[in-house]
Amino acid sequence: MTKPRVSVRVGLAFALLLIPALALAQTHRAAQDREIRYWLLDPSTHQFRISHDFTVDRPGQASVHSFVRAGSEVKPDSKITLLDTGEPLHTHLVTGKDVNTLGYYREKYPDDEVVVQGDLPAPLEKGQSVRVRVEETYTDPVGYITKDNELVWTRTLGRPLNFVSLPEGWMLTSVNTPAVITLDAQGRVTMRFTNIQPGDLNVTIRAKRR
Q1: Diameter over CA atoms, the chain
Q2: Burial level of 82, CB count in 10 A (0-12/13-18/19+)?
């Protein structure tokens, strides 16, 4: 009779350890902001496209924002779309100072930080939420380079699920962290990185032309 009791205790302890992780996962699923996708462009341009979705539900909020990471430059043709209706929002670049003035976020951003802003049709009412999609093109001459005939893309990834596709006609030669590797509908090599740790993943991808 003692062995089943040990098994029950072990199983219960394991379940208790999972509770915080499951709670975090449920939080992300509820907001559906777990994923981000990157498409690497020709490395000679140092550019890659980004797409990610998120939900906004703060009463009174009249605009949504995507914060550009230091060291990267975002093209001014960024798009933010209201997914509930398919309506493109008026999208333009503002500064961290402009965003801080709005008072939407607890964190204060550097005054000169570049921020992509999409203006909502109307301020959100209490109990209302909207879902948006941000599409941007970044230029990063430090983190995305060519070296010894290989493209090298180095970046920290903070989302639970991160998808990175190589440019068309390129094959993966190495990646420094575990990834699920597949081909997308266009035949591009695509890596899926799953981050279950509290910190970011430091990823370096190398590839050569086929």
Answers
A1: 69
A2: middle
Q: What is the pTM of this model?
A: 0.82
Residues 184, 164: Cα–Cα separation, whole Å? 10
Is residue 121 over pLDDT 50? yes
Domain regions of the chain by residue span: 1-31, 53-134, 140-209
β-strands 130-139, 73-74 pairing:
antiparallel
Pair 127, 56: CB distance under 8 Å: no
Q: What is the mean pLDDT of residues 45-74?
A: 95
Tell how strand 35-40 and strand 161-165 pair up: parallel
The DSSP secondary-structure symbol of 69 reads: P
Instruction: Report the Cα 120 to chain-centroid distance in Å.
Output: 21
